[in-house]
Please model this.
Amino acid sequence: MRRSIVITGIGLVTPLGSEVPTLWRRIEAGDSAATPPAHFDAAPFACRVCAEIRGFEPGSYVPEGKLVRLMNREAQLAVAAAHRALEDAGLKRERPYRPEDIGLFGATGLAGLPLAEVAPLIQASARADGRFDPNRFATEGLRAVRPILSFKVLSNMPLCFVSICENLQGPNAVYTPWEGQGAQAIEAAVQALECGEVRSALAGGCDVKTHELAFLALQQQGAFASWRERGAGPTPGEGAAFLILEDEGAAKARGARVHARLSGFSLATRPRESGSKETYARILEAMGLRGQSLTAVVAAGNGDPAVEQAENEALAMLQVRVPMVVQPKKHMGDLFAAAGPAQVGLAAALAARRGGCVLANCFGHGSEQAAFLLEPP
Amino acid sequence: MNQCVVITGLGVCTPLGHTVPDFWRRLLDGCSGIGPVTLFDASALRVRIGGEVQGFDPAALLTEYPESAPEKDRKVGLGLDAAHRALVDSGLPLEALREALLFVGVSLETFLISDATSAAHAGDLSSALVALALARGGPSPLQTPLDRLTQLLGDHYGFQHGRYTNCSACAAGAQVVGEAFRRLRAGRANVALAGATDSPLNPLALGGFSLLRILSEENDRPGRACRPFDATRQGTVLAEGAAFMVLETREHARRRGARVCGEIIGYGSSLDAYRVTDPEPDGRGAVSSMTRAILDAGVTPAAVDCVNAHGTGTPKNDVVETRAIKQVLGDRAGGIPVTANKSMTGHMIATSGALEAVASVLTLYTGKVPPTINRNCPDPECDLDYVAEGCRDFAGRTVLSNSFGFGGQNASLLFRRFEP
Model:
């Protein structure tokens, strides 16, 4: 890394809570957010549990109440987590940076149609025999949905709502759909800071995998294979995670509280024909971790025994010594597109609390894998 | 040290043609790719026109991509076709792709409503849809994942250095080119394949966008329906297509003796932070993305010789973009050509930024600026030189390409004529 980049804000909204200390306490106490889905019967799926956020009120994070009605749940969670990150970094109280000097880089999950909104359209567009009727679709069907539907389906909307609610006008990008893309968002933020394009960047992700069509997509994408084959696997969750990244000198100059310094990271593609262990080892090797001692690893283990084994073998292969291994996904669910920023945020908080180097592994579904190294400032 | 980045391969699959020479010839000739929608029965819709890729046969892809056989999402096939053409055009040895970056821009997941209506009369629609999809089995779900093309290309060519799926709506196609450029410039790789694909000509996308009242409803004269910067413009026209380019560091291209079509020298992006439905009226975000691209290139606004505009033909965009160009380029704004390719191609959502990047490179490579067609009644608020009279010879050295997306994401790219 060409510049020293630090994390000054962490905003999390997860099924186990939104306050970082509370979240850590519940993870360390072994709490789990996994329950059967509240709104559908998961019997047709290989996985029958999920991690839902209960009692979430988006209204307190959105400046105009009417905006809430335009947002899908992913966007509402994203706005809440971004707000919390900015507040945590002190960027809500002070305004040290111009809106155009703050970048916004994020990942969103498989958007999925808001089924409650399109159900009337589907029903109104069917003939008695269930075949699609283009005339009925064009008349009764489209009359049954709100004009804003297209904006709820566009995958970039959660980040656009963040920009609107928080008046962020800087460089940006939105990636999709898995954990690796959340890591790519952090990489993009680092790149924007390194080339001096922004003075601060909000990087994160949001995802909602707790509804029926998300389960369907996960099953069809092979994310539930371990449930079928080994009786255990990832618990689909919902949530959002955002981090404030800044140049260390700029953060110190404005008197910001620094959670952790991002002292290294690596991203790699897991080729279809190659094993996870080799890819994970390649990432850790690229970070120069061979033979190193770390304080802790915020591990990728998500309930799938194969993921855990590959991760452990990669660490052993490189002789990385780690006395403390925590697996947040086993407790708060797998947040997919939000998982990477959540892992890094938790690792930053742990580095601040325990000292030493903390590794955040962002090994998840999809081809793109990453890891980040955090240390106290 | 920053690397110079050049473009060595172009591939398109558009309503104006499947090959770069066909596309370019028709664009220069001022041909419209807009016609009645034939991909499905749109006869009862308020909007019944669009830019379809004619004669596209997904089965023809099976020779090159046998793994695409079960694909029913048109945008995936269009993207495979354009990406393949770009790679062939570059002459790049395929083994080089192992260490290359892959960037793909997309917008909407495709949801084929005709797949879903058989569950419409079930008591619990959601459960019935799930049962239907699970019973059908196979790799083709109700919704094609947005990263489907990325993974098909990534696995087929063995991209192992990073695969990125960007979903920044109408800015996605420009952002993927810009992001690839930035990473090559910083030395993260020597080669990148970057482009975008989209196909919103299905009932839900066309019907859904028509509800927003941003589409032209002039179904009886499709070729005239998209009229950027014209006083009588009524909206944009949706279209499908894909466009890809191969980017390389100049040194890598030189070592392998590659033909170079152009150089990319700057990229900027910004957010309107205004409304999801409308551009910020003063063009604040548009000004910022253009200014950032110019600064990123280390030049001044005086170095911009041509603008490939976002130019959608919507009442709001064209006025705001005109104001923004004037603000950025100052007195020079009225003296340089500003062209709007969407007048001929229609608006391909994610793809437009990538296709207009291709057109910008071709402007520099061939020395011709394509026209903005259908501007017969100038809007007094849109008072720049929009090349309305027909294509024009161009001796300039740079083209600035704009893409402004739904939700307020903006991206601008600055290309330069390659001088060995």
